[in-house]
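The data layer described in this paper is built around a simple, fixed record for each protein. We quote a single record here, exactly as it is kept in our systems:
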Amino acid sequence: MSTGEPDYDRLLRSNLERVFNERNAARRTAAVAELSGADPVMFESANVVRGQSAIVDAAGQLLAQFGADFAFVPIGHAVGHHGLARLSWQAGPRTGPVAVTGTDVAEIVDSRIARLWVLLNPTA
């Protein structure tokens, strides 16, 4: 039985892998175009990023800042309903240690990310 809900896990995992782990700008651009609405907004703790190209650039800058071995890894499965979903993740060098953990919370409209809140967990 179909609930009419999008596949929240696939969508948020794809966003993490194909946007925030993708170092190739052309592939990152294609992923944002596929996964996001026409005018997405990403809310970070100190910044608001508006539009597909700005999100592509912000992800690229983040990857450049942390180096080639840095990656985001999902923790568990994304859950959601009625257009709201969340996915927890951790990030750091692929061989460890974990540098940061957080959660992406997304508003989903027409099976695409309309708004994304990036929530960082406090460090110990």
The longest strand covers residues 70-81. The mean pLDDT is 95. The beta strands are 36-44, 47-50, 70-81, 84-93, 100-109, 112-120. The two ends are 44 Å apart (CA to CA).
